[in-house]
């Protein structure tokens, strides 16, 4: 039987248990998966005390960076972006991974976004770095709008091929010149940008938040005639990629994603 859990704080709102249990059902796997409230300070001790009882952990805020300090094997990508969302045990050895970037690209593929000239990412934390790296070379230009200039070097280092630019946070930024805008900030942090949303915006607005939904910015984007994708799509695809790592097999993403969308509506 597979034993899994999503760790983070706060965690009571998480839909990951419903998603992962739905995957088990779809694949005919026996397993249990639950949500456990773990702070960043508590993660090292929690992992040391509980790792023998679980097969994998999903990691959400605020654990994505501190997870990179755990004494486990780390694949190249979490090291590069200093962010991880998955811990997997195989043959009693634990390894650290991230599926945020791959899950994001699957989500925008599903949304039909195939050509990207310019992308704006709101925020520069772990999820933003994963998305920036995933879009490197796919979007000709990647720009970041963030509150802390101290984050500039960490997110710029994830980009090799795309042209990069960094903006200090301001509420009057021109949002008309992008094909994709991705909000990775905490709920409410980007609300004031709603005043800058143009009429009938051309960009796809992707908000990694799914609760509470809709965000102020997502509602304004939709009300102005723009296309919006919420964080459930990212959650679905990164969960599928996590289970691919756990089971060590390639899963049929779109079949599973269709099943998971139905499971979330049930």
Question: What does this protein look like?
Answer:
The protein has 266 residues and is α/β, with parallel strands linked by helices. The protein has helices spanning 16-27, 43-50, 76-81, 100-110, 126-135, 152-156, 216-223, 231-247, 253-265; strands spanning 2-8, 31-37, 56-59, 73-74, 86-90, 93-97, 116-122, 139-146, 163-168, 180-183, 204-207, 227-229. It has two domains: 2-98 and 233-265, 3-Layer(aba) Sandwich (Rossmann fold); 102-229, Rossmann fold (3-Layer(aba) Sandwich), CATH 3.40.50.720. It is globular and about 50 Å long. The protein starts with a strand and ends with a helix. 43% of the residues are buried. InterPro entries: Aminoacid_DH-like_N_sf, NAD(P)-bd_dom_sf, Shikimate_DH-bd_N, Shikimate_DH_fam. Residues 6-86 form the Shikimate dehydrogenase substrate binding N-terminal domain. One of its GO terms (cellular component) is cytosol. GO terms for molecular function: NADP binding; shikimate 3-dehydrogenase (NADP+) activity.
Structural class: alpha/beta
Biggest sheet overview:
6 strands, mixed
Going across the biggest sheet, name each strand in turn: 2-1-3-5-6-4
Please tell me the CATH architecture of the largest domain by its name.
3-Layer(aba) Sandwich
Query: So, the CATH homologous superfamily of the largest domain?
Result: Leucine Dehydrogenase, chain A, domain 1
Number of E strands? 12
Sequence of secondary-structure elements: EHEHEEHEEHEHEHEEEHEHH
Structural domains: how many: 2
């Amino acid at each position: 039987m597979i034993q899994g859990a999503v760790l983070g704080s706060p965690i009571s709102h998480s839909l990951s248990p419903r998603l992962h249990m739905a995957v088990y059902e779809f694949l005919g796997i026996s397993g249990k998966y639950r949500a456990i409230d773990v702070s960043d300070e508590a993660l090292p001790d929690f992992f040391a005390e509980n790792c023998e009882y679980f097969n994998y952990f999903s990691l959400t805020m605020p654990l994505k960076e501190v997870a990179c300090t755990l004494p486990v094997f780390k694949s190249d990508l979490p090291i590069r972006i200093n962010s991880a969302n998955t811990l997997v045990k195989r043959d009693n050895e634990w390894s650290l991974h991230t599926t945020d970037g791959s899950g994001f690209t699957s989500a925008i593929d599903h949304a039909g976004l195939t050509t990207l000239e310019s992308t704006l990412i709101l925020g520069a934390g772990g999820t933003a770095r994963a998305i920036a790296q995933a879009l490197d070379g796919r979007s000709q230009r990647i720009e970041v709008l963030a509150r802390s200039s101290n984050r500039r070097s960490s997110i710029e280092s994830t980009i090799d091929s795309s042209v990069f630019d960094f903006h200090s946070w301001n509420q009057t930024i021109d949002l008309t010149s992008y094909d994709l805008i991705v909000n990775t900030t905490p709920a409410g942090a980007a609300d004031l940008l709603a005043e800058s949303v143009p009429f009938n915006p051309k960009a796809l607005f992707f908000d990694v938040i799914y609760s509470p939904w809709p965000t102020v910015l997502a509602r304004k984007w939709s009300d102005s005639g723009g296309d919006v994708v919420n964080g459930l799509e990212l959650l679905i695809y990164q969960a599928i990629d996590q289970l691919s790592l756990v089971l060590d097999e390639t899963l049929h993403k779109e079949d599973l994603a269709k099943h998971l969308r139905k499971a979330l509506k049930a």
